[in-house]
Amino acid sequence: MYHYHCLNAISEKGLEKFSASYVRTDNMGEAEAVLVRSAAMHDMEFSDKLEAIARAGAGVNNIPLQKCAEQGIVVFNTPGANANGVKEAVIAGMLLASRDLVGGINWVQSERQNELIAKAAEKEKKHFAGCEIQGKKLGIIGLGAIGVLVANAAIHLGMEVYGYDPYISVDAAWNLSRNIKHITDVDEIYRECDYITIHVPLLESTKKMVNRDAISKMKDTVVLLNFARDLLVDEEAVVEALRNGKMRRYVSDFANPTTAGAKGCIVTPHLGASTEESEDNCAVMAVKELMDYIENGNIKNSVNYPSCNMGVCSGVCRVAICHKNIKNMIGQFASVLGESDLNIANMANQSKGEFAYSLFDLDTMVSEEAVRKIREVEGVLKVRVIRK
Length: 388
Prior knowledge:
- By secondary structure, this protein is an alpha/beta fold.
- Helix content is 32%, strand content 21%.
- It contains 13 helices and 16 strands.
- The strands form 3 sheets. Strands 8-7-6-9-10-11-12 form a 7-stranded parallel β-sheet, with helices on both faces. It has a 5-stranded parallel β-sheet with strand order 2-1-3-4-5.
- The longest helix has 21 residues, at 276-296.
- The protein is elongated and about 90 Å long.
């Protein structure tokens, strides 16, 4: 029997995917698996029993990834599960920035008691006029799960789409419309596009990537959209550009004192993935990732350990080892197993940065003594035995 703990409210459509072998617990200390959305985990202590954490969403800034990796705790996220919700929010953002629908709605609200509102509207509507997005150039920085969906949707809306992603995956490339222009120099997007939307992860290398220099290359009529992370943009520079007429609109999904109420800013309270469908999809994916790891030792969509998949155990048992990515680890594991008269039926080893992961399927049950010796190998962080 396995135990899981929820740090936030998790969709029941996801939780119901757990088999009868899983029991929910209110005590995180007795859980092998934890599901989380936005709860801050950096100051938490983790028990030796905890094997994995699944973030029902893409961002993992609330989870201490290095600390977890060093304790042999695999952290998963759910890339793409909320992509459609964010895509629709981006399209809505473009429309809100192009047509002053918000201004028009607010005017109607202010005139709600005016019996002549219909006549007055015919005079006032010119103040809320805008432009259409059909035929305009959209630049997409980052062609991951969300960027690809935005790109394809924009093509169907009649936009001319430029895509920039030097690290585009094979899967993303296959899903991308052939009508999208793949750009190798992001400056071309800054110079040419009427709308620019960002869909890259927040890293040290991407922090404030849209800065004063980038803005200086853009059209004065550009609309910048940010539904990824607020720190990707130098928002002080954006507010200054809006004030000086160097940018038309900034649409952000991250409310903060810099942009809230600022001229030309359309800010929503982090609504991109706030749909029932997104929450359901994220929860379902998170639960499936946890179950596959707990029951089979397979890793998919981890942010601190490498992907590694050997399917269902082909032997009598499977030994799963989280360890440092240093030389001769596999040789030491094989020596311990060989000295214990254990035959390796199948194996896999993958690495990611300073951490690595190994799986061994054995023809006979591994002994406690052999497991103890593996744990004593320098660089080993956690060992699990998974029975067939």
